[in-house]
């Protein structure tokens, strides 16, 4: 995940890098059994964002593109939820979780902008 002024602007690459960061983060956490499902859901939703962006980019129509980006946006919101829940219920690397939340919020804004612009373009 690029930081500071070195942010990656390609949404496909950025969501891929985010998914990798989440996986690397989860690998560092000693997970108690009761919290396993939270981390499982986090990995699923975080990796789903990039997978849906990639699938949307190879869609056969504008509707396909929009559909997969909308799903990616929903997964991004879900990933933010799991990160926030983990932060509030576990003693984990709070700084790292905050960085992941911040990046997911930025990706969410980018996805929302992509969706809105493409919806507007499809009504022209």
From TrEMBL:
Concerning InterPro entries, the annotation shows:
23S_rRNA-intervening_sequence, 23S_rRNA_IVS_sf
Which chain positions lie within coiled-coil regions? Answer: 83-110
**Gene source species:** Sphingobacterium deserti
Name this protein carries in UniProt:
S23 ribosomal protein
Report the Pfam families cross-referenced here: 23S_rRNA_IVP
Query: Which keywords has UniProt assigned to this entry?
Result: Coiled coil
Superkingdom to which the source organism belongs: Bacteria
């Amino acid at each position: 995940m690029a930081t500071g002024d070195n942010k990656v602007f390609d949404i496909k690459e950025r969501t891929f890098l985010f998914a990798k960061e989440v996986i690397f983060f989860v690998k560092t956490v000693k997970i108690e059994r009761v919290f396993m499902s939270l981390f499982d859901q986090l990995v699923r939703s975080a990796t789903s964002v990039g997978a849906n962006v990639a699938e949307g980019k190879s869609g056969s129509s504008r509707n396909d593109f929009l559909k997969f980006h909308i799903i990616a946006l929903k997964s991004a919101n879900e990933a933010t939820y799991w990160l926030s829940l983990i932060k509030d219920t576990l003693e984990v690397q709070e700084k790292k979780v905050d960085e992941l939340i911040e990046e997911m919020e930025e990706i969410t804004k980018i996805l929302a902008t992509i969706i809105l612009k493409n919806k507007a373009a499809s009504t022209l």
